[in-house]
Design goal:
By secondary structure, the chain is of the alpha/beta class. It contains six helices and six strands. The two termini are about 30 Å apart.
Length: about 210
């Protein structure tokens, strides 16, 4: 059953696992379509595979998969608050849509897949091997999602050992907070290469892509 829109196009979050956005797309292969369902944490822009925390908001469009009774019950049992945008308005789920635009530009437009298995392995390698741990985002201060979250948790641990505790966390966080108003408007620069590169990307061919 449809859920109210708890997000209202404000994708900002104060920490990990507060707001997830979800969507589905179809990847063509020589064997037919492969269905790709994604869930992104809006704080880090990452597609993590982990158990949600109680009280988390799960935001999506009003596709049949999300409005089904089975999905509604699953959210309720897990303590998740479902949220859905209006029908036919991509801006209500812009962050999830932007991820698919990035995926299309950086991966799907550059190759074809003979089998569903080949597509599945390539998508896994892109998301878990590049997008989450290495791809830099302008909205994260040109850090990768994994590095951004690692630094955030380091600040949380440090703040607990100082007077004032968690109340000082945000002011002491060195990496910038996501500003949802800039999402999808600025180019993200990254350098694909073998091995590691420093924050400025000293090796590889520079490419500027718009999400």
């Amino acid at each position: 059953m449809p859920a109210p829109d708890l997000v209202q196009r404000d994708f900002a979050a104060s920490g990990p696992d507060h707001l997830w956005v979800a969507d589905m797309t179809y990847v063509p292969t020589g064997e037919g379509w492969l269905y790709l369902a994604t869930v992104l944490d809006t704080f880090t822009m990452a597609g993590w595979n982990r158990r949600p925390a109680t009280g988390l908001v799960h935001h999506s469009d009003r596709g049949a998969q999300y409005t089904s009774l089975a999905f509604s019950r699953r959210c309720r049992d897990a303590g998740i608050a479902p949220s859905m945008g209006t029908v036919g308005d991509a801006y209500d789920n812009a962050m999830a849509e932007a991820f698919f635009a990035t995926l299309e530009t950086e991966l799907l437009m550059r190759q074809t897949f003979a089998t569903r298995s080949a597509a599945r392995l390539t998508l896994f390698a892109y998301i878990e091997g590049f997008y989450n741990p290495r791809r830099r985002h302008s909205a994260l201060g040109y850090l990768s999602p994994a590095e951004f979250e690692r630094r955030w948790w380091a600040v949380q641990r440090h703040s607990r050992t100082r007077p004032g505790g968690a109340s000082q966390t945000r002011s002491r966080l060195e990496c910038p907070r996501i500003d949802s108003s800039t999402w999808g408007r600025h180019p993200a620069t990254f350098r694909p290469q073998e091995g590691d590169a420093d924050a400025r990307g000293t090796r590889g061919e520079e490419r500027t892509l718009r999400r």
